[in-house]
Amino acid sequence: MAEFLAAPKPGANTYDWEVVLGIIGWIVLGLIAGAIAKAILPGRQGGGLIITLILGVVGALLGGFIGSAIFGIGLEEFWSIQTWIVAILGAILVLVIYGFVTGRSRKA
Questions:
Q1: How far is 60 from 73, CA to CA, in rounded Å?
Q2: Residues with Cβ < 8 Å from 104, sequence gap 6 or more?
Q3: Which pTM does this prediction carry?
Q4: Is 87 exposed, middle or buried (0-12, 13-18, 19+ CB in 10 A)?
């Protein structure tokens, strides 16, 4: 496992390293999108910070999937505004669904 996470050697195939960095980027994007989505939604949602951040990661993935399937837009580069909008909208959607499933009220 440590060999997989080690920095690539010069001349080595960097594909594995790029995959690891891509996964870390998705997680970071989802964590931030979940925090932003919770700040955007009014009222108190159930679950703590950890649940919100996990739902943010799920929402970012869902937003990217829905955006690419329906609208032909997806998650491009990490710093692309399109990526952030799709991820945040997906996180909001997942938080709203989570609120309905858990029966939490969105009233303050």
A1: 13
A2: 44, 45, 46, 98
A3: 0.72
A4: buried
